[in-house]
Amino acid sequence: MPDSRIILAVQARPVLRAAAPGGAALAVGAWSSAGPGRQRDLDAFREGNRDRGPGADRLLRGVTELGSIWASVGAAAVLAAAGHRRAAARGLAAACVTWVAGQGLKRVFGRPRPYDAGLDELHLRIERPNGTSWPSSHPAVLQSFLSVTSGDLGAGPLARAAFDGLAAAIGMSRVYVGVHFPSDVVGGILLGKAVAAAFDGDRR
Q1: Which of 115, 132, 162, 203 has a 20 to 30 A CA-CA distance from 179?
Q2: pLDDT digits over 57-69, tens only?
Q3: Other C-beta atoms within 10 Å of 176: how many?
């Protein structure tokens, strides 16, 4: 009996670790949907979306798709070819779960994209994507993929922090190109962390 309780506790830990960022993501979505939270989100969007010159336009338009599900497919193929098949498979599975969860949450929240929200002086720098705004799938997918694969490959704290920074940078590029609000990005990153935490229990 004691052994059974220990096993159940060990199995429950990833779920509990996933609950914290998952709940925080939902809280961000609710807070930024109305009232002062919504106004702060709009103010942050205007700052993140303002013009920073042609160099920033070229750079951020070029890197913003690194968070797409297809980028994760390509990265998984590279890992598999290098002999890291388990890490590739688990990373891609986490990315796919994150993408599906994100699409479901988009339907629940139904938040308009910035260019559909009646904002003044908005800069739309890429073609309009499909779907609604919250959460941002690109940083979510990249966050979960990088978190799972870096853990499976034994990456150190500095490398994992750098990967977190990359996911955040891709998220902010989505604000700059005009397709997401900052709260979409924060919610997406937290969603990616939640899915990655749920995958921790299957690591061997």
Answers
A1: 162
A2: 999 999 999 999 9
A3: 23
